[in-house]
Amino acid sequence: MIRTLRAYFLSRLLREKLLLIGLLAIGMLWWLSAFGSRAGQFWRTQRGTTATMEEQQLWLKNQPAIETRVQQSTSQFDAGKTLDRIKLVEALNQAAFEAGLRDNYGSNSAKSDTSDQVTLHSVDFLIRQADYSMLQRFYLNVQKRAPYIGIESFALQPNQADPNKVTLSLRASAVETIR
Amino acid sequence: MCASPLSFLRAGPPPPKVAFLSDALFFIRTVPVAAGAAPAEAAAQIELALESVAPFPLAQLYYGWFWTPGAEQALVYAAYRRRFTTEQTAAWAEAELVLPAFAAVVGASVAPATTMVLTAPDGLTALYWEKSSAPARVLWRALPADSDLEQRAVIRDQLLRDTGESQRVIDLVAPMVAETASSEGEVLFRAGEFESHFNRTSAAALDVRDKAELASRRTAHKRDLLLWRVVFGCVAALLLLVVGELALIGGKKWNDTRLAKVRAQKPTVDKIMAADLLAHRIEELATKRMLPFEMISVLLEDDRLPPEIQFTRVMTTTQTSLYTITVEAKSTNVGQIGVYEAKLRNLPMIQKVDPRIGQTVGNTATFTLIVTFKPDTIKPAESIAP
User: Fold this and answer.
1) A18 and B381 in contact by Cβ < 8 A?
2) Closest to B89 measured CA to CA, from B64, B63, B62
3) Using one digit for the tens of pLDDT, what is the confidence trace for B251-290?
4) How far is residue B76 from each of residues B117, B120, B164, B207, B345, measured CA to CA in Å?
5) What ranges in B13-63 are assigned the alpha helix state H?
6) Which of A154, B195, B351, B366 could in theory staple to B358 by disulfide, Cβ–Cβ 3.0 to 4.6 A?
7) Which residues have CB under 8 Å from B49's CB, separation 6+?
8) What single-letter DSSP state applies at residue B146?
């Protein structure tokens, strides 16, 4: 068949040969360009999928170890002393009250992270325009509840008009074991 | 009804177009060639020999020859150009080969001392092989237009006698016809069971046309072959692209299957990742404590904070480090920033102080100090000095 096509091609006029080559070359380059683009995209996608699968496999492989780690870290807490979200807010309010703060503090709930055995509650607590010494007392009261209450973030900002008054915002967290 | 457009593919390649000329128009000789001559040398020797025996200059002749490498003689034939009309020579443009009819048989494998008789409407041609490589003599006798079989037999016998002692005589009544050869570089002529083969080089030498014109035809043929190879390459590339497209379709299906698996595993994996993060945070909560007021005390105690510097904001978060505190401050004396930084840097519990100067107006500047403490050098305080 190739010899027949070859004989047919060679019997054509030169301009017909050149026209055929031109059309074939344009078609081939066009297709090659489009194919290259799609092949590149596919290659990146499949590499991304491979990486994701490998990462997933790693996590799945480590699942028993992570569950054991959660169990071990939770076991350091006395289940009777762990706090749920309400108790955490109560504890923070009490620490503020005992520090002498009145009506210038409040809290907002942040998200809770839960596993099968434990929940980690977080609360954003804000004390406005307080004396520095009162904030220190509040802080010490909170620290007395460690490790059942921990501080994850802390920001202190003096009042520009009255440097003796300070605003404290912190994120406190507490572990609640699920019994 | 039309035939299939691809029917010509099933028919195979067409045979080469050959223009056969009457043997009567040619004078035919054998000329010597030096032993061991290369094809180019042999061609030069043959042309020189022809020039010496021909009645006209070579430029006024259509001539060709048959010579096999290693042979010590070549068969040459030539015809005066004016014996052909313009119409005849114009028709040759379409032909791949133009040669006298007898030349088609000289490539046959023939036993020595064999005479072959070719019959044409206008005459008989006898080729005598003394050895097997090439005919040693070629004779032609005219046949009268109204000759009967008996007269023809007489002329044939006379021709055989003139040719010489032959052990074997082959009569070819049917004319030689060009056919498609089994390989690319071969030219095949056939008459019934009788075959004559030539390679491309020998066949080119048989052609009687002007040698310069033949050279330009060969150049054009080479160019056409190159163009054919380009076409072949393009078609091969297109076929490869088809294969590539099929592979891409298959690859996409394969990847879709993997993506479905990734999607199915994602909730489980997210849960494990959350558990890991939770374990890390609980471990940190159980074993480490953020001590922001204790760190602030270190920054302030022993009057190491110059009175020109005033803190505007103090921050720390577990997301950066338990042991790093960020202080935003302003100073009414830019020089004191460096002094304060040096004091802090000299403290044994401080690992690193990173000052970043912000806006300055006159001698007043706002700046940020990122102070990193050495792990476990700050202890929880029972009480903190104001």
Assistant:
1) no
2) B62
3) 999 999 999 999 999 999 999 998 898 888 888 888 888 8
4) 19, 21, 20, 11, 108
5) 39-53
6) B366
7) B31, B32, B76
8) T
Cβ neighbours for B90, distance < 8 A, ≥ 6 positions apart:
none
Q: What is the rounded CA–CA span in Å between residue B324 and residue B374?
A: 9
DSSP element (H, E) containing B335: helix B334-345
**Which tokens in the block code for residue A120?**
């980690």
Q: What is the C-alpha to C-alpha distance for residues B52 and B280, in angstroms, rounded to an integer? A: 107
Q: Between chains, do A132 and B386 touch, taking CB under 8 Å as contact?
A: yes
CB B322 within 8 A of CB B341: no
* Cis ω for the linkage preceding A147 (within 30 of 0): yes
Is B261–A53 a contact, with Cβ atoms under 8 angstroms apart? yes
Mutate to test the interface with A, among B278, B281, B299 (most CBs of A within 10 A): B278
Task: Give the β-pairing of A118-131 and A113-114.
Answer: antiparallel
Handedness of CA B373, B378, B380, B382 (dihedral sign): negative
DSSP-based three-state secondary structure for A84: coil
Q: What is the pLDDT of residues B71-105, one digit of tens each?
A: 888 999 999 999 999 998 898 888 889 999 999 98
Contact, B43 vs B205, CB < 8 A? yes
Is-contact B289 A151, C-beta < 8 A?
yes
Cα-based angle B101, B106, B110 (whole degrees, multiple of 5): 135
Give just the sign of the alpha carbon dihedral B84, B88, B92, B93.
Answer: positive
In eight-state DSSP terms, residue B11 is H
- Inter-residue contact A7 to B14 (CB < 8 Å): yes
**Burial of A25 from C-beta contacts in 10 A (0-12 / 13-18 / 19+):** middle
A151: three-class secondary structure by DSSP: strand
Which of the residues B235, B249, B282, B288 would you substitute to probe the A interface, choosing the one with the greatest number of A C-beta atoms within 10 Å?
B282
Q: What's the pTM value of the predicted model, to 2 decimals?
A: 0.61
Other Cβ atoms closer than 10 A to A69: 18
